[in-house]
Amino acid sequence: MSDLVFSGVQPSAASVHIGNYLGAMKWFVKLQEQFPLMVCVVDFHALTSVDKRGELRSFSQSLAATYLALGLTKDSTILFRQSDIPEVCELTWYLACQFPLGLLERATAFKDKREKQEQVNSGLLFYPILMAADILLYKATKVPVGADQKQHIEMTREVSEKFNYRFGTTFPQPEPLIDKKTGIIPGLDGRKMSKSYDNFIGLFETEKVIESKVKKIVTDSKGVDESKDPETCNVFSLYNHFATEDEISELRESYLKGGLGYGTAKMELFRVIMRELSPIREKYTYYMSRPREVETILEQGAEKARIIALKTMKEVKEAIGI
Ligand code: AQP
User: Quick check: CB of 9 below 6 Å from ligand 1?
Assistant: First the structure.
């Protein structure tokens, strides 16, 4: 079976953050040059957290504009919205019937949310099955994700195996593509950068907001003259992802030598972040001012995705005997 790469991001906020960007999205553009690529605006999943009328639509438009601003093109990538392919819900049900409840309840992301939230909707419990359905509906073989999603891909493999065992080989065993360097991007407080921890830097927040967030990154309390440990510093950790090799080794030396305050290091980090994000931000503004053009790209992507989805569903129903 030839490789097909599938991934997606939830439109669950007005802007994606640096964790989404470095952990997964930046990679999509390189992958579109190497493999057939499908990238999705994962709006059904986002419904587990977005509940204000109209918000999902505007977040989805913003995310689609982000994909295009990053350099995904309609000729190299099938770019589409998850909810335009309703078959994914049908497949979710078939897969759910193969999946033990206990495994879903033990999923780390679900347990985290359950601890944080007073009320947890059942969509959150079913999140990994819907994700498995997304991947298997298109028979994707590779899934670029951040390290936090590894368990969900393992669950996809498991449900694929169970289905194949019971009904005959229908699905591939997809593997996660996780970049070791960008596995988990830390947020302002050093925990995983995440919307729900409110410790994120949004790609399209104003320069002023980004600067003030960078200034808030938690460090130890070492003074300017003291030697500092780059390996345990959140500022340095983010710097690693935006600076050149020369800039990284120069900052590392300054940390070790002493004489450089965290305030200066943070301004240097802000500079390299803006250097990388500025062209993307410009393109994002371009696409955000052309909603019709973006919508047409999503519709054309959905037409292509639907052809694959219908073919898979036919096989699935034949395999089950439904
Ligand atoms: N901190 C991170 N480091 C590396 N990768 C990350 N991803 C998210 N945060 C980090 C990766 O981004 C892709 C899209 O993820 P998503 O749409 O599922 O977003 P998310 O994981 O729900 O983002 P949050 O901010 O963590 O949302 P909440 O707080 O709602 O749970 C995925 O490939 C993910 O690995």
Answer: yes
207-284, CATH topology level: Tyrosyl-Transfer RNA Synthetase (1.10.240)
- Give the distance, in angstroms, between the CA of residue 74 and the centroid of all CA atoms in the same chain: 19
pLDDT value, residue 1 = 67
Query: 3-class SS at 38?
Result: strand
* Among candidate residues 80, 69, 76, the one with its CA nearest the CA of residue 32: 76
CATH ID of 5-184+291-320, from 2.40.10.10, 3.40.50.620, 3.40.50.700, 3.30.450.40: 3.40.50.620
Contacting residues for 315 by C-beta, under 8 A, at least 6 apart: 170
Our answer to whether residue 113 is catalytic in this structure is: yes
Q: Which residue has the tokens 């999603």?
A: 149
The residue from 139, 192, 213, 266 that is catalytic is 192
| Residues 184-235 pLDDT 10s | 899 999 999 998 889 999 999 999 999 999 999 999 999 999 999 999 999 9
Which residue of the set 26, 139, 195, 228 is catalytic?
195
Task: Tell whether ligand 1 has an atom less than 6 A from the beta carbon of residue 241.
Answer: no
Q: Annotated catalytic, 195?
A: yes
Written as six digits, the tokens of 235 are 């500022």
Q: Edge-to-edge strand order for the sheet containing 5-9? A: 77-81, 37-41, 5-9, 142-144, 175-177
Name the residue among 290, 24, 33, 44 with its Cα closest to residue 179. Answer: 24
| Active site (annotated) includes residue 192 | yes
Residue 222 makes CB contacts below 8 A (sequence gap 6+) with 228, 262
β-sheet bridge partners, residue 142: 5, 175
Which tens digits make up the pLDDT trace of 144-194?
Answer: 998 889 999 999 999 999 999 999 999 999 999 998 887 789 999 999 999
Query: Distance between CA atoms of 114 and 48, rounded to whole angstroms?
Result: 13
Per domain, the residue ranges of the chain are: 5-184+291-320, 207-284
Ligand 1 contacts CB of residue 193 (under 6 A): yes
